[in-house]
Structures are given as C-alpha cells and as structure tokens.
Design brief:
289 residues, mainly alpha, two-stranded antiparallel ribbon
Length: 289
C-alpha cells in the first residue's frame, strides 16, 4: 500500500485500488490479493502469538510480549465487565481477544511497503490489506454476529426468550409489536454497519497515504509518514470499536434476558438469598403481631 513512499515520480497520478484483484485460481475459486495476504498475515499471527504464549510468565516481560499481555488483559476486562454474570463473560473472552488481535495486526501489516504497489500480479497488486476489502470485513462481521446470536440464544435459555427481549411489553399490544419488529430489523443491520465502518476507515486511509505520497514525489516518505503514523492509531481504534460493539451486542441481549427472567420469576422459586427484604419485613410483622 505505501510502496509509493519510495517511488520517484508518478506521471498518471496516485495509484489507488479499492476493489481486490484476482491473483490465481484454486479449485475453481478466484483467490484475490486480499485473501492471499490475509492467509499470510494469519499464519504470521498464529506463529507469533503462539511464540508469545510460551514466553508469558507471572512476572511481566518487556517488548512485544508485554504488548500482547496488555492487549489481552484490556479486552478480557472489557468482556467480563460487560456482563452482569461474570462467569458468562469469561466464556467469550478467547473469541473477542482473538478477534481484536486479528483485526489489529491485519490492519497494521497492511501498512507495510510490500503491500499495494510493492509487487504486482498482472495489472493488480499482489498484496492488498485484508481489512481493506469489503468482502473480508463483511465476512468478519457475519461471523461475529453469528457468534453473538448463537451465544445470546444459548445464554437466554432458548430462541423464544431471546426474541422476547426485543419487546418492551406484550407483543399483543400493536405499539409494542411495531417497536419490537423495528428493534429486530435494526439488529440485523449491525452486520452492515460493522463491515462498512472498518472497511471505509482502512480504505480511506489508503487513499490519503497514496495521495500524499504522490504529492510529495521525491519527498514522499516525509509527506506520507505523518498519515501512516495516524493510520496506526486508526487501526487500533477501529479494532477496539469492532470488538466492543460485538461485546455490547452480546451483553445487552444476555443481561436483558436475565433481568427479564428475574423480574417475572415465581416468588415461591426464590431462595432466602434472593429475597432478604421480604423475609425481613415478614419477621417484623410477626414480632409486631
């Protein structure tokens, strides 16, 4: 993507590629440059994080290991604290931590000089940022929302209870029915919002770097460097936003279902720990009697 930083003079303007390009065919499927680079980066991530996992000790270490530990601890706390039942939150820590580092490192690796205009396969760049492809961000958004829906149904106690959390009152009331259906429709649009938000931020960052590299000509490394550094921050921010939204979508559904169950629970099924005030009030009345 930023190989133009070390190019000399561009005659036809900045080279900007928004759509992915086909690189080769595999079993009748076209493998694009973003998929290819996504595979490469995924392999690097697996090897790198597996190596870091073996280096983790009780005493914090410096360098990349400390960076990973801070990231894991940060996302873990976000997940656990989002749920009223902390045990439920801990079950989904591995997925959201993995998702965070996958998006973050794919975005950062997309800023390397070998990506974009570095190498070509025909008329298309050989490598393209995985998160700079709308198909890729849609795939991540779909997988994330499937995980959210399946976990929400599981933690809510069934699909009926999960659907019930969309309605503020009885669905027999026309007003509550319309509001509930609108909430369900809004819930389905989350896939689109997650995918577009990540894609547009990465793609626009590519364009800005390409434009300022072109304008800088021989001084391209200097003119594009500030925007490249900004993109490092944007990549971290967008990774956080993608993950925190997925956490909130899941936590809201689970917490609302648990609150609804507690609100409509049979008093006879409550234990003494669940109704201390009632027991205390009954004891006071008995003494007065």
């Amino acid at each position: 993507m930023i190989m133009s930083l070390i190019k000399t003079m561009a005659e036809d303007g900045p080279s900007i590629h928004v759509a992915p390009g086909g690189v080769f065919h595999l079993g009748g499927f076209v493998i694009t440059n973003s998929i290819l680079y996504g595979w490469i980066v995924s392999t690097i991530i697996i090897v790198l994080l597996s190596f870091v996992a073996r280096k983790v000790t009780v005493k914090p270490k410096r360098g990349f290991t400390q960076f990973v530990e801070v990231g894991v601890d940060f996302i873990s706390n976000l997940v656990v604290n989002a749920f009223e039942d902390k045990k439920v939150g801990r079950k989904y820590v591995p997925y959201f931590v993995t998702l965070f580092f996958f998006i973050l490192l794919n975005t950062w690796f997309g800023l390397l000089p070998v990506v974009g205009e570095g190498f070509h396969s025909g008329e298309s760049p050989l490598f393209r940022p995985f998160t700079g492809d709308l198909n890729s961000t849609f795939a991540m958004a779909i997988v994330t929302m499937v995980v959210v829906y399946v976990a929400s149904v599981k933690e809510s106690g069934g699909i009926r209870k999960y659907i019930r959390h969309f309605f503020v009152g009885s669905p027999k009331n026309p007003l509550y029915l319309v509001i509930g259906l609108l909430e369900m429709f809004t819930d389905l649009t989350r896939v689109v919002s997650l995918a577009l938000r990540l894609f547009l931020n990465v793609a626009i960052g590519e364009m800005v770097i390409a434009v300022f590299s072109y304008l800088g000509q021989f001084a391209a490394p200097l003119t594009a460097l500030p925007f490249t550094l900004i993109e490092l921050g944007v990549g971290a921010l967008q990774s956080y936003i993608f993950v925190i939204l997925g956490i909130m979508y899941l936590a809201i559904a689970v917490n609302h279902s648990q609150a609804h169950d507690a609100e409509h629970a049979d008093p006879e099924d409550l234990t003494e720990d669940d109704q201390p005030e009632t027991i205390g009030a009954s004891s006071t009345q008995s003494v007065r009697g």
